[in-house]
Amino acid sequence: MSASDPGVGAFGPAVLSARIRVSPEDFRVEELDGFEASGEGEHLLLTIEKRGMNTGYVAGELARWAGVPEVAVGYAGLKDRHAVTVQRFSVQLPGREAPPLETLERDGLRVLAQARHRRKLPRGALAGNRFMLVLRDVEGGRDAIEARLQEIGRRGVPNAFGEQRFGHGGGNVGKALAMFAGKRVGREQRSMLLSAARSALFNQVLAARVADGSWDSGMEGEVWALEGSRSVFGPEPMSDDIARRLAAFDIHPTGPLWGRGELRTEGACRELELAALDDVGSVKLREGLERAGLEQERRALRVRAGGLEWDWVDGTSLRVAFSLPPGSYATSVLAQLGAIEDAASLQ
After folding, report:
1. Which residue, 332, 328, 333, is CA-closest to 126?
2. Catalytic residue at 311?
3. In whole angstroms, what is the distance from residue 244 CA to residue 35 CA?
4. DSSP 8-state symbol, 37
5. Could you say which DSSP state residue 160 is in?
6. pTM of the entire structure?
7. Model pLDDT for residues 35-50, shown as the tens digit of each residue
8. What would the pLDDT profile of 159-180 be if each residue is shown by its tens digit?
9. What CA–CA distances, in Å, run from 288 to 259, 283, 300?
10. Cβ contact 307:321 at 8 Å
């Protein structure tokens, strides 16, 4: 099982095959704002709908439009080019008005809202993302597909890191190993490769938890994550209260984001994590992350697809919509349905 799809099969065999992103409109993502604009300040918050443009490109266009350095432009998250996306940007304009918006808008880029704010929009300052996806050329029984979607809505899905984290063909993990072996890389690439190494190890543990069925139920020695927070607690044994909170999606089992220090888990949970990461490649990744100075952290093994809904556009096209918290991937939901070909990757 590859590092980018460790949760495949959490609910049994595939129930469909399909294609995604046949056109950008088939993959729509809207950021869920993490705060309201203050209404005053030297930063202009712009809610922008873009088509066929990635976030970095739009940030550069905003800097040129406003006549400011690109460092004066902020955004909460990165969004794909092969999609229609709605996200906020901030532009620092101390002591002056913005140029006319019509000089910014063009085919594929329009401003939906604007407001003043006191601070630059920082990375991660969003409540999540709402995905509205259309699967084309769907093959599979409609009853089985809808039963799987109902199960996903009821239980959540394995919270895997998506293939975007690992680069083309998953090559970032190999590059991380080369970096740990002494190859010099730039600061920005170093950060990306450290994230890829950590994510690969997490996905391996998640794969082991999916294989034994404990990814959404917990096990002896478990450390728990609070929903909507980076806070964790435990290890704490299963109890009536833990079981109630788990069923209510108030807490989730966790896996390691590797770094220096001892694993926080105990007993069977700790044994599983160490066993999942005892191959030669994983040991090298672990040692490299420890030398790089990262500390042990935890990430929820389960994520809820909030507000999950679906409808059939026609006999072979299925529209699915759901919300995910920051740092979770739509591919984690789609992977539980079956084999879905990304048409944009073939272009």
Report:
1. 328
2. no
3. 30
4. -
5. P
6. 0.91
7. 999 999 999 999 999 9
8. 999 988 898 888 999 999 999 9
9. 9, 9, 23
10. yes
